[in-house]
Each structure stands twice: as C-alpha cells, then as structure tokens.
Amino acid sequence: MTHTPAAQPPLDFSSLDGLGVMICGHGSRNRLACEEFAQLAHGLRQRLPEVPVEHGYLEFARPILRDGLDRLRQRGVTRVLAVPGMLFAAGHAKNDIPSVLNTYAAETGLQIQYGRELGIDRKMIQAAGARVREALDAADAAAANAGGEPVPLSDTLLVVVGRGSSDPDANSNVTKVMRMLVEGFGFGWGETVYSGVTFPLVEPGLRHVVRLGFRRIVVFPYFLFSGVLVSRIYQHTDRVAADHPEVQFLKAGYLNDHPLVIDTFRERLEEAIRGDTAMNCSLCKYRAQVLGFEQEVGAPQHSHHHHVEGLGEPCNLCEQECTGACQPDGVPLPSGHHHSPYPHADHPLGPLTLGRAG
C-alpha cells in the first residue's frame, strides 16, 4: 500500500488581519553574521509581502527582540507569530526566547504565538545536501582541470559540525542530519563533531577520524550563519589538514539564506497558524529524566541574556569574513552570563580543549 499524505494548500496570509511575523535570532558581535540574518529576514519578507516581518536578537546585536516587537505594534500588528531563527531547540529556543516573549506579552497585552525551530526537515536536508554538493563539485572540477581523477564518494568521509549544546536532544539531531547525508550521497563514512560546549570538538574529532584512512574528508558546518564559530571550524580544519597532506580536506559552506531554508521558515509559520506545531518534548532534558541530566527536570524558564541585550557594536576587525581574532579560544563569557552546568565539561575531547594554546 502506498502512503501519500495529503498536501496542505498554502495559506493566504493576506486574509489574516493584524498578523505580524517575528524572526528571533541569537545575535553575534560579527557584522557579517548579523547582515546574513537580516538578509534571511528580508528573504522571508519577499515571500510574505502582505505581512509585516521583523527580526531581533537575544544578545550582542541590535535590534533586540523587544525592538522588533515594538516595530510590529507600531505597524498595527495585534497578533505575532514568533519563530526561533535556529536549527534545533536547545536552551535558547526553549528558555531564553520564550522568556523574553512572555514578558513582553504580559507587559503590553500583545498576542504572541511561538512556533518551532527549523529542526529535522526534508527541505533542510536538501539545503544541506546542496552545500555539500557545491564543495564536491568544485573539488572534482579542480581535479579534472589538473588532469586527475576525482576521489570516489566511497573513499570520502563526511564530518558534520554542529553548534554544540548542553542539551543532548539538540546534539543528537546533528547526528541524524549527518546520517541522512551519508546515506543520501553514499559516503564511505560519517562522523559528527561540535564547535563548543559538548564533545568531540572539531580538532580532536578530526584527528580521530583521519586515522580511518579515507583519502578525502568533507567538513560541513551545519550552521545558518557565519561568525566566530564557523571561522574557528575552518581554522581547526586547516590545522589538522596541515599535519596530514596525504588527505584532501574540503570545507563546505554553511546554510545561509538558501531558498529551501526560507521555505522551511514559511512552513513553521503555517504550522503555527494551523495549530500543528509539534515540539519534541519526549527527550527534552527539562521535562524528562534524560540520562545524566536529571537535575534539570522542571528547571524554571528564564533568560540568562538580559545583561547582554544589544551589548556592544558589530566587530570592526572582520567586516567581511570572521577571523576570530576578537574571540580567541578560551575567552570567558561576560560577567553574569551563565548556563546550566554541563555534566561532561571536563571530557578530554570536549570543552576544555578550547582553552589550550596553539
């Protein structure tokens, strides 16, 4: 029997009076990262010309979330669909953004409906595959121009790099993305590493996988935007590649405002309007006793970003591509900026390696 789900017809947003959209980002000191986030919001405006669309950040950049919400109210919006501009639901999407939105709604009476993160989605996997394909095609073309043969996919290892979180549910989603890409392309092997917080981190992870003997390794940052973390991923990749000239390292581009990413944002808005928003709560560390995180069950929902809302100006050291010079490895968080304790903070392949020299 063939199972073909009925396709939902696209919603007519113009028929929804008083509706506005708020794209909620984390924020960055890097000017390029903020410009890319603003460009994504612009892309969504072009898809929804009949609906006011604003964006804002939790920290380190303006406009902050309250600024964007203020602008929506000034435009006559009475009902806001707010969606996290984030790949997976970890602490920022589960606690920090809802805390700001709930506080604002209580103060102003504005109706705010919260949608889910981009998550594991067919379109997101397709966008990721497009970025990986771009890197492979460029390498194969270079090999052909040099008179050589391309490295077969069966002799290529894919490393997907996630942001890294103290929430194991969010971390596990990165591994699912990796597996979908590995089986979709037919790579010889796949591994998942992270840019921070959890383990394995990029450099120790790459030094492990290089021992598997594959001729080519593709490093793909599963990130929406540029910034110090993507820059650090590429820097650590170069560091390992310099020690292993016998292996071809390819650095794939991050997602950015790929059209399928913007399509997924629109889907999240339509889900919220239809009441179809389905959060993954079965493995949420705040709701269930996930192994190793039992002390966080029932933790109160609050934001730890109030002291850094809109803090600082965009970084002038890296107007184009982030160099990471303004935030070297091991730089402490601003005073008062705290997270829940991560139970494996001293893991030898994890966060402590960020602080080592060289």
What is the topological layout?
Elements: E1 19-25, H1 31-47, E2 53-57, H2 65-74, E3 79-84, H3 91-108, E4 111-114, H4 122-145, E5 156-162, H5 168-185, E6 189-194, H6 202-209, E7 216-221, H7 228-243, E8 248-251, H8 259-274
Helix pairs in contact: 1-8, 4-8, 6-7
Verbal overview:
The chain has 358 residues and is of the alpha/beta class. The protein has two domains: 13-119 and 259-274, Rossmann fold, CATH 3.40.50.1400; 122-251, Rossmann fold, CATH 3.40.50. It is built from eight helices and eight strands. It has helices at residues 31-47, 65-74, 91-108, 122-145, 168-185, 202-209, 228-243, 259-274, and strands at residues 19-25, 53-57, 79-84, 111-114, 156-162, 189-194, 216-221, 248-251. A four-stranded parallel beta sheet has the order 2-1-3-4, sandwiched between helices. It has a four-stranded parallel beta sheet with strand order 6-5-7-8, with helices on both faces. Helix 7 (228-243) links the parallel strand 7 and strand 8. Helix 1 (31-47) packs across helix 8, helix 4 (122-145) runs antiparallel to helix 8 and helix 6 (202-209) runs parallel beside helix 7. The termini are far apart. Residues 315-322, 328-337 and 353-358 have low confidence and may be disordered.
